[in-house]
TrEMBL record:
<feature type="signal peptide">
    <location>
        <begin position="1"/>
        <end position="22"/>
    </location>
</feature>
<feature type="domain" description="Plant heme peroxidase family profile">
    <location>
        <begin position="123"/>
        <end position="329"/>
    </location>
</feature>
<dbReference type="Pfam" id="PF00141">
    <property type="entry name" value="peroxidase"/>
</dbReference>
<protein>
    <recommendedName>
        <fullName>Peroxidase</fullName>
        <ecNumber>1.11.1.-</ecNumber>
    </recommendedName>
</protein>
<keyword id="KW-0349">Heme</keyword>
<keyword id="KW-0732">Signal</keyword>
<keyword id="KW-0575">Peroxidase</keyword>
<keyword id="KW-0479">Metal-binding</keyword>
<keyword id="KW-0560">Oxidoreductase</keyword>
<dbReference type="GO" id="GO:0020037">
    <property type="term" value="F:heme binding"/>
</dbReference>
<keyword id="KW-0408">Iron</keyword>
<dbReference type="GO" id="GO:0034599">
    <property type="term" value="P:cellular response to oxidative stress"/>
</dbReference>
<dbReference type="GO" id="GO:0004601">
    <property type="term" value="F:peroxidase activity"/>
</dbReference>
<dbReference type="GO" id="GO:0042744">
    <property type="term" value="P:hydrogen peroxide catabolic process"/>
</dbReference>
<dbReference type="GO" id="GO:0000302">
    <property type="term" value="P:response to reactive oxygen species"/>
</dbReference>
<dbReference type="GO" id="GO:0046872">
    <property type="term" value="F:metal ion binding"/>
</dbReference>
<comment type="similarity">
    <text>Belongs to the peroxidase family.</text>
</comment>
Amino acid sequence: MLYSSAARAVGACLFVAATTLAVPTWPDKNDEFEQIMYVSAGYARRGFLDFISPCSFSDVGKGRINAAEWIRTAYHDMATADVDAGTGGLDASLMFETERDENVGDAVNHTFGFLASFHCSQVSVADLLALTVQAAVKMCKGPLLPVRTGRVDATEAGPYGVPKPHENITALTEKFVRQGFNTSEMIELVACGHTIGGVHGVDFPTIVPDAGNAGFNISRFDSTTQFDNAVATEYINGNTTNPLVVGPDPTMHSDKVVFSADGNVTIKALTDPDVFQERCASVMTKMIETVPAGIVLSEPILPYEVKPNLISLELSNDGSNLTFTGHIRVRTTVRPAAQIKNVTLLYTDLDGGCGTIATKMATFSGGSSTGLTDNFMNYEISTVIPASTAIKSFNVSITNTNGTVETYDNNGVGFPVSSPIFLSSTRSCKRTNEPYSMTVAAAVREDYTADDVQLVYSVPFNRQGVIIPLIKTETTAMTFNSTVGPYDIYTVTVPLISGQVIEATFDLVAGDNMDYFRNAAKFPECK
């Protein structure tokens, strides 16, 4: 992503009336999270829903349900919260707690193993846990929960305190109160969390000593694999097979203990399907928004109506031209994709001149992207512009088949392009064999050159006993290499270890100008 804090204004020559919507201003610190959240399949896919589609899917064993394991993992992470003390909550401390008996089973590490590929310098594990709950609930036909970001990952284990199935109502109630839930909310959260999934005999042999009601040594909480109120209706109707209500070990009937805590008043109310969905949305949102004191969560993450992606510049060998590439993602959830005739960029250059750049609908996956709630079409940019005037910013103009034109101006500031400094991929390289390294080249415009040019890079380091690597960020100075046309080329070589070359991300910084969140994945091999 190219970003320049010094180049925000759109020139007056962009004469088409602009439409401003209540959406983020690009670029935003949540852009990578937004892409993970909204684009799971198709063009520029992130694949976040792959492990829970369909709702009953599991990649690790018959009878298991990944969606249920995602919900369990998130709850166990926040369950040690102490809201009065302002500690704990959804903070990914569970990464350090997987060997505890209160977190028995491999579901937690299986979930974290999936999330590891999405964790980066821009996306915390704790925020990803919140997203797993939204995704699992909605994929299983439950309510759509809002997801906010801003959670900070814990660096060590939290205290013990996850509720256990053998505990009495006094102990269970005390734990839920500590987490911030009253008795009714405790009942609701347990019912909502147990509407999918079940108990595994390998983890609790006295609860499921045989094949279980679902086979494969698993007993389900209710008769469906959807996010519905069967867990409540079957309990009230007396035909439940929930092993934590009627299982063979009466000392482990924690759901029965919880559901009856107020004389079955709350659980009976949940037999109304609308009430069930409404109350689950409330208590599960409260669950994922319980965070340590001092953490300020963002507003709910919404999709861009129009979003630039992978915007890049490359300087020609003789320095006369810039190749400008990327793509524009257009939301088509409400607007039919067939209604779009063309998408054009209206740009301003560094001298105040204007121009237009045509885009072309992407061909991979028909140009379409989909996610949990939204659909998109993608339009590719590929053009050459003079290096002398470059490009400062652009608006996006959508011409519809009925002749109407919509122009998106990024909340009035235009979509900025950082011509002052950008990654030169063709002058960079990587070593994917020993000695591992990446050599990064930045093109810095001569008249914008700062006192120093820096590479700020983030790389993962494996941690003993923790399945998700630690992301460390370092800053190093880049050195002048050569002058090519109106640009100075700065380079630096960073030694790395195996695996870091492909997973490293970095920013290029020259004074107030930045080329933001790049990676070496497409670098050529160093010679």
